Amino acid sequence: MNAYLCTYRQQPPRPCDLLKTRNAGKEDPLIGRFLSEYANGHYDWGDDPAFFAAKHKLGDVRKASWGVCRPDVRTVSEPGDVVVFFCAHPNKERTIWTYSFIEFGTVGERIWHKDVWKNRRYAPYRSFYNLLINKHEQQEGIFWPIHTNWKRRLESPYIIFDAAKSVFNLDSPHVVAEWHKGDKKEIWKLDRRTKKIERVLFAERGIDRRLRTSQTGYAHTKLNLLRDGRNVRPGRSLPELLKVLKELAI
Questions:
Q1: What percent of the chain has pLDDT over 90?
Q2: How many alpha carbons fall within 13 Å on the CB side of residue 199?
Q3: pLDDT tens digit string along 122-151?
Q4: SS3 labels along 194-221
Q5: Counting CB atoms within 10 angstroms of each CB, which of 80, 106, 144, 231 has the fewest?
Q6: Phi and psi dihedrals of 179, rounded to 5?
Q7: 45 confidence band (pLDDT: 50, 70, 90)
Q8: Side-chain half-sphere exposure of 76, counting CA atoms within 13 A
Q9: Rounded distance, CA 208 to CA 41, Å?
């Protein structure tokens, strides 16, 4: 089993994409709510991971799925693996980025987009926004821009998190760091909780990098917390790491 760290960017959509999204979602009353919450929230544009849909459609954010972004991580993820999420939120000028600890999800099921439509067990996910197909045809069209490489993304699994073993905080996530334009890395805060998050995810494991891996706005490369290639990293085992993540989520 493995544990991965992933950062998603919560940045303003282009005006033309916002308009197209509003028009495409006119028949879905929740789209308006998503758009009203988005600017000051911690969702990914397109809702993937599907925190918004899980909260408002299934009544439990821990039932989120993951099916569009980070296909490289979804491809290698197996049931029982842990994904630690951070949200990167830029200011209007995109010169300052704030990083929030969204906490973690444990992979419950590893299925395929087509399974959502073929198996009645997954019917609750058919109205989620992070689906790439609808009965084998391209599904995207509400959130713009759509993915032109959607067929390639279909080659990676659709992940459903285990609600009993996941903790997501989208309402008041803990802010851990800031990045200012020109800096090589984000600067982590010095409060006790932040220091412990940074220590158990990076320092104890001998990891020099942090969340941002480049000065561009797009470089937040995934990170395997337990392995560096074929080598096992030092630090806590997965059960021990999961235990401390639960403590940090309180």
A1: 88
A2: 9
A3: 999 999 999 999 877 888 879 999 999 999
A4: HHHHHHHHCHHHCCCCCCCCCCCCCCCC
A5: 231
A6: -120, 135
A7: very high
A8: 14
A9: 29
